[in-house]
Amino acid sequence: MKENPEFGERLSEQFEAKKKPLFTRSAVTREALVKGKTAAYGRELVNSLERAELYNLFKILRKELRTAAPEKKAEGIALRNDLARKAKEMQKRIDEMNRQFHEEAFRVPIEMPDIGSFDIPVAELDLAPAEDPEKDERIPYVFLGGLTTNYYQTAALSMALGMEDRRVFALTYPEQKIANPPKALIDAIAEETTFKLHAEILKQTAAKLGTGKMNLVGYSMGTGVLMEAMKDPAFAERVNDLVLLEPIGLVEKSLPKIAKEFLVDQAFGQTFPNVEDRIKGWLQGDTTSGAPVAALKNDVDIIRKKQFDAESLSRMAPSGSLQVWFSPDSPLMNAKEIDGAFEGAARLRRERGEAEIPQNITHVKSATHAWPLVHAIGLAGRLTRPRPSSEKITELAQEDLDRTYAQKLLKGVMGK
């Protein structure tokens, strides 16, 4: 359905304006276990939310059909049939993504002097695997999320990238409990003052994924780890696109200010009141999460410090593009300092006569640090499409990034 029919417009308005129910875990996970011969796990919260939103869409559609004028019912029935066919296929893809998240995960062995051996849990996602892996021309995405998270907690974005038919490797921080970190590793992390140890672990992990070239995506603390790793020319040679979401380490902030911004302004002011924000930015994967207090405390101390400037950023040289996305209003962000650092880095490269690196800076109008997870579906669609370089800063409202597949599906059938 390529047109924007009156019936569809009314349905879209009703769906966007619907009241969000008060959150209860049982309401979102009432589908219980995934059906399958070997399934022994439930649907991830983000996937249950997507299915619930599709259900809500059809609930509103049925109500609209019951009250539609006779001359409009044919239009509504055609829309329903189109939506139903595409929703069925989308639900199959969502369930397959959920299966891969559990069944295709593996552990990467890491060896480090003075620390010993340990494993990094990784989830591999791919809805469109090549028949011959040797001929697969897609460059995979390697994604590292926020503060001490595991791949369950950042599922909203990794799965959204996977739903774009990209091969994705979602990584876990070494201090996470699902990694079973040895005491020597926790002690080493607790003594760190920079991202160097995490960056070294990232480089070893990426080397053992066997991907060749890769697109690196970091969110929050993950950006600091990626930028530190990019200081290594040998590692940087393997990086095609470097994507930094809410980049950390470019602004200095005090511990009291971080506590206020994250706990008071973000958690209680932004995340908890909204069901989607709460699931994607907080509750997803919470039962799997855990890190020793000493390591967590030190990680917070690392991310609040300024670790990078224009000079160090100018030495980062991905072979593809550099994309920087952040909200000027979210915690740890300062638009003037961050924009100035990346623009200064580009200027230094020009002054040294080095090749230009395609660079894009996007300001997303949002009050929450978790917008890359909450609006992961719309963000993933944009990250996986070619984008011309621009010296101008792009301004984007978070509403322009789809939050749910129901929203994306409805726009698609209406030709938007």
Architecture overview:
With 416 residues, this protein is of the alpha/beta class. Helices cover 47% and strands 13% of the residues. It has 17 helices and 9 strands. The chain has a 9-stranded mixed β-sheet with strand order 1-2-4-3-5-6-7-8-9, sandwiched between helices. The protein starts with 5 loop residues before the first helix and ends with a helix.
Summarize this entry quickly:
This protein is α/β, with parallel strands linked by helices and about 425 residues long. It has 17 helices and nine strands. The longest helix has about 35 residues, at about 70-105.
In spatial order, strands of the major sheet run 1-2-4-3-5-6-7-8-9
Structural class category: alpha/beta
Please estimate the helix content: 40-55%
Biggest sheet character: 9 strands, mixed
Q: In sequence order, what are the helices and strands, one letter per element?
A: HHHHEEEHEHHEHHEHHHHEHEHHEH
What is the number of helical segments per DSSP (H or I, 4+ residues)?
A: 17
Q: Are there runs of 5+ residues with pLDDT below 50, and where?
A: 21-39
State the shape.
globular
State which percent range the strand residues make up.
5-15%
Mean pLDDT: 88
Give the number of DSSP strands: 9
For the CA atoms, what is the radius of gyration? 22 Å
Terminal CA distance: 10 Å
